[in-house]
Amino acid sequence: MNIASLLIKTSKLYPNRWAIALGSEFNSTYLDKANRVARLAGGLKDRVKVKAGHRVALAMNNCVEYSDILFASWHIGAITVPMNAKLHAKEFAYSIEDSGARICFVTEDLFEAIQGSIRSLSDPPQVIVVGSQKYVGL
User: Fold this and answer.
1) Crossing angle for the helix pair 64-75 and 30-46, nearest 10 degrees?
2) In CATH, what number does 4-136 get?
């Protein structure tokens, strides 16, 4: 059993209860979230070839997609590498290289910093911007 199973269980017990709120606006129910996470997990496995034990880096500011990616990664047994959005390029590079992350999800505002930081890496990860066509295609 992994932590993602808690979301699945909760979505079955309370499918219509609110799971996510952005300020005073409710975003999705537990069932909606569980379905999004399952689709994203499938995309990570099938399209990006992420497997259990692989590292998935997150260079993101707070957003709904952050928790979707966390749960999707856990769903397939991947290890998440959350990075503080205020890190400097060298710190991003170190975190990515040291963790062995194969993929890095970024919010648009951090894309340039991540792109600049991974140029020096011998095996840079695939970078996916949240909200991009590549992300939506997962």
Assistant:
1) 60
2) 3.40.50.980
Domain ranges of the chain: 4-136
Look at the pTM and tell me if it is higher than 0.90.
yes
pLDDT, tens only, 73-130: 999 999 999 999 999 999 999 999 999 999 999 999 999 999 999 998 999 999 999 9
Please report the beta strands in the chain, taking only residues with DSSP state E, as ranges in sequence order. 18-22, 25-29, 55-59, 79-83, 103-106, 126-129
CB of 57 closer than 8 Å to CB of 104? yes
- Rounded CA gap, 132 and 73, in Å? 19
For residue 106, list its beta bridge partners. Answer: 59, 129
Q: Is 54 helix (H, G, I), strand (E, B) or coil?
A: coil
Helices (H) and strands (E) in the chain, counts: 6, 6
Q: Give the span between the Cα atoms of 26 and 109, in whole angstroms.
A: 24
Beta-ladder partners of 114: none
